[in-house]
Amino acid sequence: MSARHVQREDLPELESTLMDAFKDDPLTNWLYPQGGESARPWFRVALRAGLKRGHTYKSDDGTGAAIWAPPSIGHLDRHEGGELTQAMAEHYGAAGVARLAAVAEATAAAHPPAPHFYLFVIGVSGRSRGVGATLLEPVLRICDEQSWPAYLESSNPRNESFYRRLGFSARYEILPEGGPPLLGMWREPLG
Description:
The protein has six helices and seven strands, in the order E-H-H-H-E-E-H-E-H-E-H-E-E. It is an alpha+beta fold. The protein has a single domain, classed as Gcn5-related N-acetyltransferase (GNAT) (Aminopeptidase, 3-Layer(aba) Sandwich), CATH 3.40.630.30.
């Protein structure tokens, strides 16, 4: 198993991969309670944003993807955030936009100010052993070699032990108003 940079032609396949990977995720199910296609714009925008930022990876079998933002570069710009808001409004109206805003505000308030690599999204479809670690390895290697910390917000408690094995430690709980908690996790460079 290996990971490679995502190419534009990979995006449709990876939208579906991430939709499947997040079908049981507490935060995704709260944001998109109707499920199905209503969440697709989220993954489409996230993947396109990650592609522009240069640190988006897919497993060679297509079962997983990881989207990173490099230090001091936002994971979404104003236009991309507007696309998400518009898609949410079309599917869920003002209530959906309020849920999206609650997550954006809570995560922004908790986001560490120190420069770091930010794991915006990682998802693996099915329970393929080792795919998640393979997807994270390219950027964690950069972090270790160039002394960059890394940060993520975990939206599923089942994943905490996985991230701990990779060197992340829990920093704090993030509580979007009315939504499920997220866990902010930080990783110092190793070695």
